[in-house]
Amino acid sequence: MPVFTRFSESSQPGDGVSEAEEEQAGGQREGEREATAASGPGSAPSRTLLGHRLTRLRAWRTRYPRTARALRLAASALAAALVLGALLLPNTLPALKAVSFVRIPVEAVLGAVVVLALPRRPRLAAAVLYGLGLTVLTTVNLLDMGFNEYLGRGFNAALDWDLLPDAQAYVEDTFGGGVATAAAVGAVVLVLLVAAVMVAASVRLAGVLARHRVRASQGALAAGVVWVTCSALGLTLFGGPIASERGAGALRVHAQRTVESLRDEAAFAEQSKADTFGDTPPGELLPDLRGKDVIFTFIESYGRSAIEDPVMAPGVDRTLDTSTAALKKAGFAARSGWLTSATYGGSSWLGHSTTMSGLWIDNQRRYRTVSAGDHLTLTKAFQKTGAWDTVGVMPGVQKGWPEQKWYGLDQLYDAFDLGYKGPKFSWSTMPDQYALEAFQRRVHGKQRDKPLMSFVILTSSHQPWAPIPKTVGWDELGDGSVFDAIQKGGNKASDVITDTTKSREEYGKSIQYSVTSLTQWLERYGTDDTVLVFLGDHQPIARVSGNHASRDVPVSIVAKDPKVLDKVADWHWTEGLRPERDAPVWRMNSFRDRFLKAFGSTPHPSKG
């Protein structure tokens, strides 16, 4: 006779049976009930098959009681570890240490109390919901880790889903379509696997607590008392509070972040309608730059760390100083300062739009709101005057780009319009040197009736910084095929992106390459009427720039005509291309208005 038939439902320890026998019997009864409930009425074949399997399982347990008990204990211990681990899991990689899990989570205590108070069916439902809650918590913590590692901020459930397609596109461009597909499928499978594991662990622990209700109640009470005491006294261990509410706190933060983001979206929509220069007549915009060829250039991931970090700075600073000297020899002078970017580690278009619009655009919803409206961008101000032809050169754009109208660009040259026949360099579709030479051939070097305003986005310093192009002779560029051997001989992206030290070193080299390409282009093709404004869009990812790096990026104005730099003398920027540490720091969204005013524009506010 199977051992479980010797006990009644009300058997308790001390009724003449061992604790091991009671646990075995309770587990068998619980499993039979839940299996029968799951099969439902009218499913006799399923119940028969399940009955055969349970009979075989009971026979195995009877034959090997010690092994069965050891397995049950191990499974219960693993379930407890998974639940506690999910409740205490940090949301940043630096905090992912063993000591972070030496805490008492209040969510575990409360979960035990709820389970002990419920009858069987509601208990099972509560355990499933608890497991799904742990799945959500684990998922947002893992997303936080990724976002903090790359973008220097946590995941925003209201805003960041829009970035996932861009992330997949980045992986596809960097590592290939197969890897991107595998990564997407793997992410979905991981979430489903976490859900299955967490629900199974929660259901198992609920069953264990129910089978040992008396001792479990005593344990929950003791844990609750300890938690309250530690919380009231503020007791800590290994630098953190013993009484933890990490899980509830994380979900609360995400909920608050979501609500605040939705409110912010509505407020920003109204804010973007007001514009200091919205009603300025064309004749009163940028009068002091008339006749000049003005070029606004963004260098990808060109951040303060490139100039000040001990690993990257020596090479980058040397390049900036050498380029300053070369430009001076060619008749150019430069002034440089700092701007605090609206983004960090990625989402370059947020930095571009913030600089050009004068609005703080730090998320995708804001970007979509403002780019769908008619708020005046700095580039569009040139178009509005009618005194300039306006053009965009964007080798990173590989699909339709409706923002062209908002930026006020008469013509756009994307990745497919520059005649490049050479290899891609990871995400970057072409080397900066080639993009600039193509800009010269197709646009800047041509005769025209009006001066030119150009908006140029350079991409060679985009992560993963492997392989990196090398500067070649400008007369050797041709259709870009000259870069074939350089691309093949460069580092593999997979070797660099997984190595922090290597990433920092190669990032520094990529900035040197981009700065050198741009300044050599200016030496070669710049005229007395050329005005170049170049800056970074954001700092590189946190793994490269550091966990507590600022959001500052360098910005420089270069010109031959001394009257141009005289207009910005009161900005007190540093002479040359390398801004001093104590040079002025402005928020990036202040640049548009400062630039317009410096060059003679008259404010005529629009109120929307």
From TrEMBL:
Q: Read off the Gene3D superfamilies from this record.
A: Alkaline Phosphatase, subunit A (3.40.720.10)
Q: Which InterPro entries match?
A: Alkaline_phosphatase_core_sf, Sulfatase_N
- Sulfatase N-terminal domain location is 369-542
Transmembrane region positions?
70-89, 95-117, 124-143, 182-207, 219-238
Q: Where is the composition biased (Low complexity)?
A: 37-46
Location of the region described as Disordered in the Swiss-Prot/TrEMBL record:
1-46
Which keywords does the record carry? Membrane, Transmembrane, Transmembrane helix
Protein's recorded name: Sulfatase N-terminal domain-containing protein
Q: Which organism is it from?
A: Streptomyces indiaensis
Q: What is the lineage of its organism?
A: Bacteria, Bacillati, Actinomycetota, Actinomycetes, Kitasatosporales
